[in-house]
Every structure is written in structure tokens, then in C-alpha cells.
Amino acid sequence: MSKYDFLYPMDIPEEDKSLFEKMRSNYQSEKERIFFEKMEYKEIYELAPANDLILSEHDNSDEIYLCREYDHEYAFGNKLGSGHTDSLSDALETNLKTLGALTYDCTLLDWLRMNNYEGMRYDNNFDLM
User: Fold this and answer.
1) Which of 6, 30, 34, 92 is most buried, judged by most C-beta within 10 A?
2) Which helix (H) or strand (E) holds 49?
């Protein structure tokens, strides 16, 4: 039995479990701590079959969006390029230039940090509204 069996009642990806554990001692700001704590809670306890809009393209100048689907799948990008992953970890590691969403090399995590997690919406789970 894993130490996460009780903490993680939902079947979330191992890479997200590792990400949340790693980040607990490496937050770069208070807003980053809030982001990771909220995302961990959402993956553990909140299903989102009707989508959970974490960041709207209307809330930043690069028009980047981040949407959680079901429990741990993520759609992200902008109208110029978008991606879909099966984990938050994979989404955050994605280079937005490779997607065509930005003109410079930048992972989604780096982009969130550069923008200090502005515009995050932790209460936009359309299943709970």
C-alpha cells in the first residue's frame, strides 16, 4: 500500500503525485503555493466532466487558457496553438512556442510564473456552478 492511497482517493497520474510532492518545498511565490494546493485538491476531490476553466484567454494579453477536463486531463494554449495532456505535470512542461501559442520558448509553468499566476479562477468548475 502506497503512502498516497489515503491521500489520493481519485486515480490521479503518478507524475502529478510527484509534481505536487516536489512543489511543496519549492514554491517560488505565495500565488504559486495557492495554485498547486488548489490544483492538487481539485484532482483529488473534484470531477470536472463539464470542464473546469482555470485560466481564461480573456484574462491575459497572450490569450493563454488552461482548462481541466474530467479529473486530471488538461487543455491549454490559445487560438494560435493548443495542446491536450493527461496530467498537469505534462501540461506545465509543454513548450508553448512548440504549440505555436507563443513566439518565444517558454513552458506553461514558466509562463505562469512570469505572469505571477494572475487571472487564475479556482471556482469555475462548471459541474459545481
Assistant:
1) 92
2) strand 48-55
Q: What is the pTM of this model?
A: 0.89
Give the model's pLDDT for residue 49: 83
The closest alpha carbon to 84, from 108, 106, 57, 118, belongs to 108
The full length of the chain comes to 129
Q: How far apart are CA 107 and CA 46, in angstroms?
A: 26
**Cell numbers standing for residue 10:** 481519485
β-pairing, 65-70 vs 73-78, is antiparallel
Phi/psi class of residue 12: alpha, beta or left (left: φ > 0; alpha: ψ in -120 to 50)?
A: beta
